[in-house]
């Protein structure tokens, strides 16, 4: 439900129910920072005159003669905000992300000084939003996690002293017989089908297997 009711914060919308009595229908946590009249939408050959609403969440343009002819551009979907030359003169160009369709939307604002101020303001709000985005979903954490400083435990070195023994012979650990000095002669084992060291008297292969298992 939270995802479905917060789409306006994330999705670029065309011809939606955005305007009521010439005023923007604000979303929760949304604030209007500026409203600019006399803004031409350059999507058609002759252009359409309308107005801008610049908020902390999105940019909304609507036509003066038809409120349903509008566009809502969330900062989340804005790829770039620039000024470019067009057949109508210097214009504000907003490029949306590929995820939202990769639209290139042009708007003309006169005079040029007013256009420059609008570009600067929109870029500034876009940076603020990018650093601290608003997704339209309120939540409360039931249990606040402890800070990392409280969870960090100082590592205490182990009180272990390693004594070196230069006379240790590693091969001694592999001798199966106590006090064994040399290998016994090899003999053929019919059970294994290969040559093995001759077993001590009283030992059998079966007995050695039983010890291992």
Brief overview, please?
It is found in: Cell projection, Cilium membrane; Cytoplasm, Cytoskeleton, Microtubule organizing center, Centrosome, Centriolar satellite. The chain has 213 residues and is of the alpha+beta class. 15% of the residues lie in helices and 31% in strands.
Can you describe this structure?
The strands form three sheets. The chain has an eight-stranded antiparallel sheet, covered by helices on one side. Strands 2-3 form a two-stranded antiparallel ribbon. It contains three helices and twelve strands. By secondary structure, the chain is of the alpha+beta class. The chain is elongated. It starts with 12 loop residues before the first strand and ends with a helix. It has a domain at 7-131: PH-domain like, CATH 2.30.29.
Structural descriptors:
elongated, alpha+beta, two-stranded antiparallel ribbon, 12 strands, 213 residues, 8-stranded antiparallel sheet, PH-domain like, 31% strand
Task: Describe the SSE topology.
Layout: E1 13-14, E2 19-20, E3 23-24, E4 32-41, E5 48-55, E6 58-63, E7 70-74, E8 78-86, E9 89-96, E10 104-109, H1 112-131, H2 148-151, E11 186-189, E12 194-197, H3 205-212
Antiparallel strand pairs: 1-7, 2-3, 4-5, 4-10, 5-6, 6-7, 8-9, 9-10, 11-12
In CATH, the homologous superfamily of the domain at 7-131 goes by the name Pleckstrin-homology domain (PH domain)/Phosphotyrosine-binding domain (PTB)
Oligomeric nature of the chains: single chain
Percent helix among the residues?
10-25%
Categorize the overall geometry. Answer: elongated
Query: Averaging pLDDT over every residue, what do you get?
Result: 84
CATH architecture of the domain at 7-131: Roll
Tally of contiguous helical segments = 3
Report the major sheet. 8 strands, antiparallel
How large, in whole angstroms, is the Cα Rg?
39 Å
- As for the CATH topology of the domain at 7-131, it is PH-domain like
Name of the CATH class of the domain at 7-131 = Mainly Beta
* Low-confidence blocks of residues: 170-174
End-to-end separation in angstroms reads 61 Å
In total, how many beta strands?
12
Estimated structural class: alpha+beta
Protein name: BBSome complex member BBS5
InterPro entries: BBL5, BBS5_PH, PH-like_dom_sf
Subcellular location: Cell projection, Cilium membrane; Cytoplasm, Cytoskeleton, Microtubule organizing center, Centrosome, Centriolar satellite
GO biological process, one term: cilium assembly
């Amino acid at each position: 439900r939270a995802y479905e009711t917060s789409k306006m914060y994330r999705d670029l919308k065309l011809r939606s129910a955005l305007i009521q009595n010439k005023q923007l229908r604000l979303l929760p946590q949304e604030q209007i920072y500026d409203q600019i009249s006399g803004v031409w939408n350059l999507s058609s050959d002759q252009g359409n005159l309308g107005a801008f609403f610049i908020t902390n969440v999105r940019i909304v343009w609507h036509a003066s003669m038809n409120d349903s002819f509008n566009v809502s551009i969330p900062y989340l979907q804005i790829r770039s905000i620039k000024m470019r030359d067009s057949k109508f003169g210097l214009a504000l160009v907003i490029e949306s992300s590929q995820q939202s369709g990769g639209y290139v939307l042009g708007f003309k604002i006169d005079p040029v000084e007013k256009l420059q101020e609008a570009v600067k303001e929109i870029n500034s709000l876009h940076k603020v939003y990018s650093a601290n985005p608003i997704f339209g979903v309120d939540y409360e954490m039931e249990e606040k996690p402890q800070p990392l400083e409280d969870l960090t435990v100082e590592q205490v070195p182990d009180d272990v002293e390693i004594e070196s023994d230069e006379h240790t012979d590693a091969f001694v650990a592999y001798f199966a017989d106590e006090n064994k000095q040399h290998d016994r002669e090899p003999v053929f084992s019919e059970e294994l089908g290969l040559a093995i060291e001759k077993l001590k008297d009283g030992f059998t292969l079966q007995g050695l297997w039983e010890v291992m298992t």
